[in-house]
């Protein structure tokens, strides 16, 4: 019997997302993804100094923060054709990579692992067997019987008081849960350990960025970090050596815990390589620039059609017209108006942000998200498109970690699992872990590059921008943890004339476009199994695999200037 299921709001994400599905015969037959807040940041920027945009746009989100700062300064620098010192690139790169590693760890363990891990089941585990299993998989120092006994005792305390604390409201005992008690205990232990490890990434961002969240060190033209080999008042060798220690701790956890856990859980849930495929048009952008002009990158980007690696088309620079000419946004099913008609799709340089709210209409307007397309097609962006494009580009570190992850999945599953399995819900988690391992290596490499350049006597970190008269247009992109982020700015005589942000969750959570083609969430939910419509765990598994960030995609504002919400801290 056909049943409508509405999840509103979806939890363990950032922002307010509503997901509706129609379930028939235990399968999803139709889906709607709806952003429930309006974003007005673009309108706030009109008429402002372009040098202020990075500080304002990173307030779009308290989770993604740094990514908007980086895309914004890159957009203005691109408009001015401004070259920045390589030291500034290295410092920016380390901030972005540390932020990405933090994001990946938190996403898997604290936002989505509970879709796969039955916490209460861990009470039945034998800690000795858990230790034996853990030690067979990696040499992580936290995989001891004593550690697992301690975690199990803590968990007994939660359950014994009737208060599961951070583990409250999970679908414990759901028929879709299939891990053994020992594996569940292992995962819960690593969940708690990840809470400690993620702090090292935040400390790196805070030291290099002067603050976290919402870094304060970037500027149009570089960064505000003076470099010195001896002064204690700036970024010194001593501070950089401390940062290196934190990087090595992150590397240890990512390679010996995160990558292993995802591979093992993927093996237990190998059947989920059949679900969540959806859109296989994969878009990512190159990132981690190695020169001041943004023409050389450590990590490649491009476009793959239909999931086929042989179709790969590279994107090579911030000025690559193949990327900049291909992006547009439609609003047929979005709560906006375009002055030229709502059946049109506008390039971001011409973008408009004019709200037009209606009730939720299944076949009409139902979301505050726009519908981006690349050359007229909806895209999937994020860790899976990133890994697939890097594999297609022949990126050796990606090939190494992807092979290791798939080999572990195959070992646990008891059957060979190939690259094609990545086109799935569980595959997105595997791709994210693979990408994280690549990024933690590159984080350490960027540290080495900065120290080597300082050793040559180059301590420059800033070039002063000059704003000419007339109009300039620029795009700044960044391959953020959730996927392709781009900021588009039109500057006229030193002031912002137009500004648009096209963010990863807008790509993935988009409503149907002007051709009624679904976005990635909606497409990937089709044919998902749903064992119990009253407990739609399987729907959450696929949605969470994208790591939604609706605050980036949409915001709320009261045009009468009344307070939207008041928070009192006591």
What does this protein structure show overall?
This protein is α+β, with helices and mostly antiparallel strands and 570 residues long. It contains 16 helices and 18 strands. It has helices at 41-45, 53-57, 66-80, 86-112, 127-137, 145-160, 181-209, 237-268, 321-324, 383-392, 396-413, 425-455, 504-508, 520-525, 537-544, 550-553; strands at 3-7, 17-24, 27-35, 218-219, 222-223, 282-284, 287-289, 297-299, 301-304, 313-315, 327-330, 336-337, 345-346, 354-355, 371-374, 471-480, 483-492, 495-502. It has a 3-stranded antiparallel sheet with strand order 1-2-3. Helix 7 (181-209) packs antiparallel against helix 8 and helix 11 (396-413) runs antiparallel to helix 12. The chain starts with a strand and ends in a 17-residue tail after the last helix. Residues 555-559 and 564-570 have low confidence and may be disordered.
Structural topology:
Blueprint (H helix, E strand, L loop, with lengths): L2 E5 L9 E8 L2 E9 L5 H5 L7 H5 L8 H15 L5 H27 L14 H11 L7 H16 L20 H29 L8 E2 L2 E2 L13 H32 L13 E3 L2 E3 L7 E3 L1 E4 L8 E3 L5 H4 L2 E4 L5 E2 L7 E2 L7 E2 L15 E4 L8 H10 L3 H18 L11 H31 L15 E10 L2 E10 L2 E8 L1 H5 L11 H6 L11 H8 L5 H4 L17
Antiparallel strand pairs: 1-2, 2-3, 4-5, 6-9, 7-8, 9-10, 11-13, 11-15, 12-14, 16-17, 17-18
Helix pairs in contact: 4-7, 4-8, 4-12, 5-6, 5-7, 6-7, 7-8, 8-11, 8-12, 10-12, 11-12
